[in-house]
Amino acid sequence: MNAPLSHPPKTDLKPDAGTTPVMAQYLSVKAGQPDAMLFFRMGDFYELFFEDAQKAAAALGIALTKRGKHQGEDIPMAGVPVHAMDGYLARLIRQGFKVAVCEQLEDPAEARKRGSKAVVHRDIVRVVTPGTLTEDTLLDARGANRLAAVAIRKGRAAVAVVELSAGVVDSVACDLSDLGAALAAFRPSEVLVPDRLFSDETMKGALDEDDLIEAIKGVHVLGIRSKTNVSRKVLDAADRLMAVAAFCIGTNQVDLDAAADKGVAVFNAPYSNTRSVVELAIGMMIVLMRDVADKSREMHKGVWNKSATGSREVRGKTLGIVGYGAIGSQLSVLAENLGMRVLFYDLSERLALGNARRMRSLDALLAEADVVTLHVDGRKENTAIIGADQFARMKPGALFLNLSRGHVVDVDAMAAALKSGRLGGAAVDVFPEEPRTNADPFDSPLVGLDKTILTPHIGGSTEEAQEAIAEFAAERLLGYLNRGDTTFCVNLPNVQLAEVTRAHRLLHIHRNQPGVLAELNRALSDAGLNILGQHLKTDERTGYVITDVDRDYDREALTALKQLPGTIRFRRLH
User: Fold this and answer.
1) Burial, 23: exposed, middle or buried (Cβ in 10 Å; 0-12, 13-18, 19+)?
2) Which H helix or E strand runs over 464?
3) 7 pLDDT exceeds 50?
């Protein structure tokens, strides 16, 4: 995994009469860690020499300098700023390098008191190997020479710590949620962890309510797709649940109010499949305009029917978009680029992009559009917003698309409009009732109708969209679990507080009622804790505050914070 060297380094690393005191110190330290890449602290930089410099330059994309000298010859040398070291260190660890960090352990002014040739005392304070944690919240770069190891068994963590210089061994067991605090208490210089710090279980297909209630016991994080319903009953059974990630766009399958009442954060990926849905809508419009689906079906039956009758371009046609959110607005832009005239209707005030024109009523849009496409959310108020009356108000022969939610359209009314010729064609990707698995049968009043394209809810089913959904939802989960960040959370106030070095972070979710913050700060003051940073935000139901304090806390302080009036959930991060 290590990068090849561009040219052989000088291998004689023994000091001689011409070796400077600092280089002699470097060579001495390096001799103790011959298999590690040595970060050697010199002022505001960590310097690397010889083969280490060449490897670091290749792995990190940094430049070699020509300042290095040893035994009268130029040697490879590279520097990393102290403030950026952690980022470079993490990149090296991911590439398989072992890294030793050598720090200055005294003020240069003290060294000068010993004479002009005295060298600042330096020594290795940290050795990090691939597979170890490197976060400052868990590792103290200037701490004692302690090595910690973590083992995970059935949702519990065991931490063993050895003081290498004294040979003292200590250990503790804790819940996984308290692992960070347990490690921080020991302040180890290195932590060895399993390949997977958290256990996980993957299930194919959606679970029904009873099965989910049984499976969710002891679970800290739940990941779901669109067909798994997380009801209040399920949340009542979740004894350790901290967060739910919906690896999809909508969250109507989760009881958001119940989750907020339990202090369970819910995240989704609202923008990750936008482009995929838009491209499918564009494609369906073109296929319907050119009658491609029916002509393809005839060709498979051996019928050659070359004709221009009923085949039209999308250019110059009017597109009516119902729902001008992320998907609707991007569709608007692409449709205009195809030469279409764009109208849109949305209950919320939306900025019209390009030449799109907002319509004051749904009826007005239906009367003008050659193609009507739905891109609304799944709230109950949107049930059957398009029915027989709306189809009757559309232009004769207009096309209709639904790539949003199945229950927002009266499917029987759509089938009648297609059979009567009122609709010139339809493309439907979502249905009021959909099979739970690919093995289950599908049926709909739309099956078998001419000029009707049916697809199995594949609007966001592209490799690119699924990868983006996985990354976005997972990043939101990690941000919440590791930092308390609720950005893009759909049921709790969105709070983000920058990390403070060497701080201890406390998270408090509570009912939105007067006096909670005052009581919380009073409890911190009573415990002698100084606040370094704090951010509170509330919505109609819930309040959420992140607090960073300047020193460690005792069990009595934590108990007091958990018992504050209105508390829903209290969590300590580190």
Assistant:
1) buried
2) helix 463-483
3) no
> pTM to 2 decimals?
0.64
Q: What are phi and psi of 444, to 5 degrees?
A: -160, 150
More confident site: 280 or 79: 280
What residues have CB less than 8 Å from 132, skipping those under 6 apart? 93, 190, 191, 192, 193
What is the residue extent of each domain of the chain? 1-130, 137-199, 209-267, 280-461, 493-572
pLDDT above 70 coverage of the chain, percent: 88
- The packing angle between helices 326-337 and 274-289, to 10°, is 50
CATH architecture of the region 280-461 = 3-Layer(aba) Sandwich (3.40)
- CATH number belonging to the domain at 1-130, selected among 3.40.1170.10, 3.30.300.90, 2.60.40.10, 2.50.20.20: 3.40.1170.10
Indicate the angle between helix axes 555-562 and 516-526, nearest 10 degrees: 170
**C-alpha 493 chain-centroid distance:** 17
DSSP state letter for 409: B
How many Cα atoms are found within 13 Å in the side-chain-facing hemisphere of 213? Answer: 9
Angle at 195 between CA 192 and CA 200, to 5 degrees: 130
Tokens of residue 250, six digits: 């909508």
Q: At what angle do helices 85-94 and 50-60 cross, to 10 degrees?
A: 90
Q: How far apart are CA 454 and CA 446, in angstroms?
A: 8
Under 8 Å between Cβ of 522 and 545: no
Is 457 one of the catalytic residues?
yes
Q: Which residue stretches of 95-222 are H helix?
A: 108-112, 179-186, 209-215
Q: How far apart are CA 67 and CA 422, in angstroms?
A: 81
Is the model's pLDDT at 106 over the cut of 90? no
DSSP state of 132: B
Q: What is the Cα–Cα distance from 103 to 557, expressed in whole angstroms?
A: 35
| Catalytic choice (434, 475, 499, 519) | 434
Q: What is the pLDDT of residue 273?
A: 92
Annotated catalytic residue: which of 70, 122, 275, 405? 405
Q: What are phi and psi of 281, to 5 degrees?
A: -60, -45
**Around 81, how many Cα atoms within 13 Å sit in the side-chain half-sphere?**
3
Name the strand (E) or helix (H) holding 99: strand 99-104
Per the annotation, the verdict on 434 as an active-site residue is yes
Amino acid at 485: D
Q: 275 CB contacts (<8 Å, ≥6 apart)?
A: 330, 464, 465
